[in-house]
Amino acid sequence: MKVHGDKIELVTATACVIGGLYMFYETGFFKASASVSGAPAVFPRLALGLGIGAAILTIIRKLRELRQTSAMAVAPVDIELKALVFLVVLTVVYIVVADMAGFEIPTVIYLYLLIYQRMREYWRPALIALVASIAIYVVFVLLLQIRLPLLFLPEYASELLPWLKGL
Predict the structure, then answer these.
(1) Can you give the three-state secondary structure of the chain, one letter per residue?
(2) Which of 31, 116, 139, 156 is most buried, most CB within 10 Å of its CB?
(3) pTM to 2 decimal places
(4) What backbone torsions phi and psi does residue 34 show, to the nearest 5 degrees?
(5) CB 163: neighbour CB atoms within 10 A?
(6) Closest alpha carbon to 55 in 111, 94, 16
(7) Tens digit of pLDDT for each residue in 25-63?
């Protein structure tokens, strides 16, 4: 399927602005907790604000580019429909399975399948997926203290946390 790249970017950026504004609204209902800043939703709203701002800048940039060049000058982009469907299905399955089976194993498998689809190797995607999953765990669970549906990493975190605080 061939689609103009500019149209893809405009539609994607618009969807990001709309989705980001909705999520920004939803974070207003977060309950106060013992967060790092003392206020609920500070980090999610900061990330959403940056994402919405970047999407708006993308829309502005693309609209300026479209005014300066004719629509025919932009070459169409060939979208692999199988890859897109695979990504959507894999993501939906990951969301459902991660909540039931924990964060650790489904995340490694999800990242592995995403990377393998592009690299077509076995060991490098597996190593990248494992390292990325551990990095996500360290940043979000240990440092930012965000709860994830964990299966077995909390047992190891109690041993790892004193080492991290010593850094």
Answers:
(1) CEEEHHHHHHHHHHHHHHHHHHHHHHHHHCCCCCCCCCCCCHHHHHHHHHHHHHHHHHHHHHHHHHHHCCHHHCCEEECCHHHHHHHHHHHHHHHHHHHHHCCHHHHHHHHHHHHHHHHCCCHHHHHHHHHHHHHHHHHHHHHCCCCCCCCCHHHHHHHHHHHHHCC
(2) 116
(3) 0.57
(4) -80, 70
(5) 8
(6) 16
(7) 888 777 655 555 556 677 778 888 899 999 999 899 888
Closest CA to 111 of 97, 124, 126, 89: 126
- Predicted confidence at residue 131, as pLDDT, reads 92
pLDDT digits (tens, 9 = 90+) for 81-93: 777 788 889 989 9
Contacts of 120 (CB under 8 A, 6+ apart): none
Which token pair is 51?
């994402």
Tell which residue, 13, 87, 95, has the closest CA to residue 51.
Answer: 13
The answer to whether 12 and 79 have CB atoms below 8 angstroms apart is: no
